[in-house]
Design a protein that fits this description.
The protein is an alpha/beta fold and 247 residues long. It has twelve helices and six strands. Helix 5 crosses helix 7. It is globular and about 40 Å long.
């Protein structure tokens, strides 16, 4: 069963979709098998990956039991990354999706899709409604995207209260309230680059754009940092100098 990571923020327009797509792609370059899920009814990931022109099926069909899991996930040519949209939504579908999120059914359905993947990265909608809360609750961890604007920073405490019932989230919230300790953040910064806009227009990760490898470097660094954090967590937080050798 793969690890589920939600890319989330209460505020819109802070790079959630760009981060989800490019982080997912970079993780595959390090040998991981990744599933990207578009959890936003606005379909940002479906557009950014060109998924919307390839299929009308998606997670909504699984909710309605009108398609099977193997029919709704499209796989990239190299078979390292799967992409799942919500499917074509009707007006009433948004209400149904919110209801399935509140009852926990949506989370259970997402769990059934994790087999065969190392990571499942969910592009969540902005806000604090039932759908974002459900996607957070089914996730093993959350990466919050924040741009360097005052309004983005002010939304952090409100957003973290979405899942305050969880012991892990209570701990994270407590840490952030202690004047934002360094370990609550990734060291990697993603600077604005016009290549991201061009890549979005072409519906590809920025690394696949001609001359885009340099622009993709921060996402490779983010992917590596994520791997390092997981490795350190598995070791119980030990520093490198405390690791005993083979002999």
């Amino acid at each position: 069963m793969g690890k589920i990571i939600a890319i989330a923020s209460q505020k819109g327009g802070v790079g959630k979709t760009t981060t989800a797509l490019n982080l997912g792609y970079c993780m595959t370059r390090f040998g991981s098998k990744v599933l990207l899920i578009d959890g936003d009814p606005q379909g940002g990931m479906s557009i950014a990956s060109n998924l919307s022109t390839q299929t009308n099926l998606g997670l909504m069909n699984l909710v309605k039991n009108t398609a099977k899991a193997n029919e709704i996930v499209l796989t990239t040519r190299d078979k390292t990354m799967g992409i799942l949209g919500l499917g074509r939504l009707q007006p009433d579908d948004v209400l149904l999706l919110e209801n399935e999120a509140r009852t926990g059914n949506l989370g259970m359905l997402i769990r059934t899709l994790t087999k065969g993947y190392d990571y499942i990265i969910i592009d969540t909608p902005s806000g604090v409604g039932g759908l974002p809360a459900s996607l957070l609750s089914v996730s093993d961890s959350v990466i919050m995207t924040i741009n360097c604007r005052a309004i983005s920073l002010k939304t952090i405490p409100i957003f973290l209260k979405l899942d305050e019932k969880s012991a892990v989230e209570r701990q994270i919230l407590g840490q952030i309230k202690e004047v934002f300790p360094a370990d609550a953040f990734f060291k990697t910064m993603i600077p604005y680059n016009e290549y991201y806009e061009s890549a979005s227009l072409h519906s590809v990760p920025v690394a696949l754009m001609p001359g885009g490898l340099q622009a993709a470097r921060p996402f490779f660094e983010l992917a590596m940092e994520l791997k390092e954090k997981e490795s350190k967590k598995k070791r119980g937080g030990e520093a490198d100098e405390h690791i005993v050798g083979l002999f």
